[in-house]
Amino acid sequence: MKFIQRLFDSPFWSLMRKEINQILHNKQLIVLLVVPPTVQLLLYGFILNPDVHNLRLGVIDYANVSASRELVSAMTSNRIFTLESVPSSEKALSRQVEEGKLDVGVIIPPDFPRQLAQKSAEIQVFIDAVNANTAGIAGSYMNQIIQQYNLQLTQGKVNPPVLPEVVFLYNPGLTSSWFFVPGVMGLVLTLIGTLVSAITVVREKDTGTLEQLLMTPAANWQILLSKIFPLAFLLMGDVLLLEFRLGNKKRLSNAELKRNKLQI
User: What is the distance between the alpha carbons of residues 120 and 113, in angstroms, rounded to a whole number?
Assistant: First the structure.
C-alpha cells in the first residue's frame, strides 16, 4: 500500500495522467491507435492465408469401377479439391490444365483394378505449377489422400509394422491464423506504439512544452516511461479486439473439426 501511495504522489503519476489526457483529447492519435492496427490485423492475419482450398480438379476415370470411384470420392470429400470437370480425353484434360481452367488433373488407367489386384497401381496427376507454392501444397495433399486411401485398401489384409497415430496439440485444425495473428499483432503494436510515441515527442517539441517537461522535478526515466506506459495501456484495447476475433475463429474451427470427425 505504501508503494502505491508513493506512486500516486510521485511526479511519474502526474506525467502519466498528462500523457493519457493528451492522447485521449487528440482525435488523430485515437484514430491512429484504433484503425491501422485493426485493419492490419484483419488483413495480414486472416486474409494472407497459406492454406489451399477449393482447388479445381479434373478427372478421367477409364476404369469406372467402385475402387476408382472411391478414390475420386476421397479426393473430393473435403474442401481441398473440388471436381470441376470430367473431360473425355487426356488431350482435353491437359489443355484445361494448361489454360488455367483446372489446377489438378487426374487420370485413372483402364487396368486400374488389375493393378490393384497386383498390389501396385499407378495413376497420373497433372498439377498447374504457375504458382509454385500452391502446386507444392496441392501435391502434398494429393499424396496424403492417396496414402490414406491405401491404408483403407490394406485394412484387414496387411498389418503394417508401425502404425503412427499423430495428434496435433494446441492447433488441432492446423489453422494458419492461430500462429499468424499473434506474430502480426506484436509487429503491428510495436510499429504503432513507436510511431505514436514519436508523434507525441515531436508535438511536445513543436509546442515548446518539451523544455518545460525537462525542467520538472522528475527523473529522466520517469519522463521516458510516462511516454511508454500510456500507449501500452491504450494498445491493450487492440489486443482485446484481437483476442475476441481470434477466439471466435477458434470456436468456429473447432466446430468444423468436430463435424469433419463425425463425417469420417
Answer: 10
Residue pair 28/55 in contact by the 8 Å Cβ criterion = no
Q: What is the pTM of this model?
A: 0.53
Q: What strand order describes the sheet that includes 55-61?
A: 81-85, 55-61, 104-108, 124-127
C-alpha cell at 172: 488441432
Q: Are 27 and 116 in contact (CB under 8 A)?
A: no
CA-only gyration radius of the chain, Å: 29
Domains belonging to the chain, first-starting first, are: 12-48+176-263 (no CATH), 55-154 (3.40.1710.10)
Q: Is the separation of the CB atoms in 185 and 242 below 8 Å?
A: yes
- Dist. CA 135–CA 100, nearest whole Å: 13
Give 96-131 pLDDT, tens digit per residue.
888 888 888 998 888 888 888 877 788 888 888 877
